[in-house]
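Q: Sequence in, structure out?
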Amino acid sequence: MKTLVEDTAENHTPHIIIVGGTSGLGLALAVYHLQLGWQVSVVGSNVAKIEHINGQYPTIKTYACDLTDSVQTQSLLDKLSATSFHRLIYSAGSYTNERVHHLNQAESDQMLAINLQAFEQVFRWASVKSKQQHQSLDFAKDCRSSLICIASIAGTMDYPYASFYAKSKRAMIATASAYRAALAPYNIQVNCIASGYIDTQALRDLNNGDASHKPFIMSLQTAVVEVMQAIDNDVELAVFPRSMRYITRVLNHLPKPLLNLILRSKLDKPS
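A: Exactly. Output:
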């Protein structure tokens, strides 16, 4: 069995793993890296989407995993431990419109598992793996390891009436910041992406097939450019588009009682 150093020395092609990479922004980032000549591995739960990728992009390695099952997730990570990676992106996410109806138990469990618990499980594994890889001089010279998570601009807002989705993304942002500080001595890069609305099929499905009314909505291509610029420039927390970044910055500087009043009246579902 090859050691990590032997495996890395024999293959200097950079490798990216994208968890939640079978659709939307995750898949767009996978295709972008594939076009750059990277080895690409994606993880998803939808069999039909995986089969489509296998047919459309046969060089992308696909893994099926239900991230709500911690045992299944750990089994996947054990399998991925057999190879090295240069970049890992956690792009998986679960969203239920809490402004329309109250969460039921299944929806709450799914968002908790995917947005927080699986994210933490994957990032914990990736940080350990990256530190092990750091010991290889060949690997270190080849490409700096980086861990990236896709949060949401909703997580940048700090107010008590935020939805569970927004709170989970805020927790993701804080966790990524802690990992960035912890992994800095190992020269491991950690970035968090907090974007606004991206014109994905998932967003269109949530809006009866058309999400064009969403404020400052951006195309997938634009989002990929923004994400890659944030990674290349090593931005700790990349918030875009710029217009929404400015708006959230202004709102966060308002007196808390006024902010709570504005957001509760504009965003929250009736009690």
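Residues 1-10 have pLDDT under 50 and may be disordered.
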